[in-house]
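Quick question, first post here. What does this chain look like in 3D?
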Amino acid sequence: MSMSQTTPSSRRYRTTRDLTIAQRWLVKTMSENHFGRVENLRIAGGEPVPDRNMKVVRIARLGTNGGDVPIPAETGDFELKQATRDLFEEFSRIGNGVVRRLEFRYGLPFQIETTATADDDVIPESKVV
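> Answer (accepted):
Ran it through. Tokens below.
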């Protein structure tokens, strides 16, 4: 296998400049809220598709100084952490589906629950009962 056929996540998504508008929106949402989750986020063609079914749930940590976590500049280009690169690689792997729950901590993706969308080609129509 040649080098051009393999695309490790660390090479595909290095900085925010490598992301689509929808991916940048998700990174910004997680960064601004620090702690929380995104629910019912549709994935189409490996891309997040925010729609009216999606919900962003913010979690406020009590007894801590919320100002300790820096928010990246909106216009600045910054290097992506491994967790963020892994998230977008997971979206690519899923292709089409739904993120039932994406938890983020300190502005970074932490845990993801997904369901895949069944392809029409998986079960031939003549076999459906």
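Residues 9-66+73-118 form one domain.
Residues 1-10 have pLDDT under 50 and may be disordered.
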